[in-house]
Design brief:
Blueprint lengths: L27 E12 L2 H9 L7 H14 L1 H4 L8 E10 L3 E12 L4
Antiparallel strand pairs: 1-3, 2-3
Amino acid sequence: MTRKQNAFSHLDARGSARMVNVGAKPVQRRRAVAAARLVCQPATIRALRAKTLPKGDVLTVANVAGIQAAKRTSELIPLCHPLALNHVEMKFKLRRDGIDVTCIAETNAQTGV
């Protein structure tokens, strides 16, 4: 099996998992944006807005959890390089039937976030 230009970089020529060697790459500013839509019942959104959910202010907890997850990505995703993040930002936008969630992560490194 030969490595194709669009082949998954974390597989070697035999298809075995490997950590990519980024040692020769230059340090650059890297930025990633991930977005998702969490679908909820309209009553849940109303309770979020009114801050009457039994678990308290869940968006504050989600904000902290998202930042912590970004900081520990290399522990959670196999073959991921540990990175010193310059910035992580979580954004939540309440909709009638859900929440738009966006995470922005930035670093100066030899590999991306």
